[in-house]
UniProtKB/TrEMBL annotation:
Taxonomic placement: Bacteria, Bacillati, Actinomycetota, Actinomycetes, Micromonosporales
Pfam families assigned: zf-dskA_traR (PF01258)
Keyword Zinc-finger (UniProt): yes
Domain of life where this protein originates: Bacteria
Zinc finger DksA/TraR C4-type domain location: 85-117
Zinc finger (dksA C4-type): 88-112
Listed name of the protein: TraR/DksA family transcriptional regulator
InterPro entries the record matches: DnaK_N, Znf_DskA_TraR, Znf_DskA_TraR_CS
Gene3D superfamilies cross-referenced by the UniProt entry: DksA, coiled-coil domain
Keywords linked to the UniProt accession: Metal-binding, Zinc, Zinc-finger
Length: 120
């Protein structure tokens, strides 16, 4: 398990909280757009309704993706509080610092992430 000095832990926490706030603002904006775009006009024909349904589904998928990234950040914060930050959730090996620097909310090492993606 990686053990970080307190100042480094605070830097990581600050970065994760900042990212969480960015994602939350993006999520709120996306949901607000979904609400506005979903209005059906009485003059809409079948093509208009189809386009609106497609657009709404795309926006829903975007909101779901943002929500998933928010959950990842929350999980990283929980792992930081529990002293498990930087440890792979699957193999319990250390996640390289360079990977954590690039993706602070990552919870899997490269090998475990590759294995999880190859299952799909």
């Amino acid at each position: 398990m990686l053990v970080y000095p307190e100042t480094r832990t605070q830097d990581i926490r600050s970065a994760l909280i900042g990212r969480r706030e960015e994602l939350e603002a993006e999520y709120v904006a996306t949901v607000a757009e979904m609400t506005l775009a979903g209005v059906v006009d009485s003059g809409d024909d079948v093509a208009d309704l189809g386009n609106k349904a497609f657009t709404r589904e795309q926006e829903f998928m975007l909101a779901e993706s943002i929500r998933g990234r928010m959950d990842q950040v929350d999980r990283a914060l929980e792992r930081l509080d529990a002293g498990h930050y930087g440890t792979c959730e699957t193999c319990h090996g250390e996640i390289p610092v360079a990977r954590l620097a690039a993706f602070p909310s990552v919870t899997l090492c490269v090998a475990c992430k590759s294995r999880s993606e190859s299952r799909y």
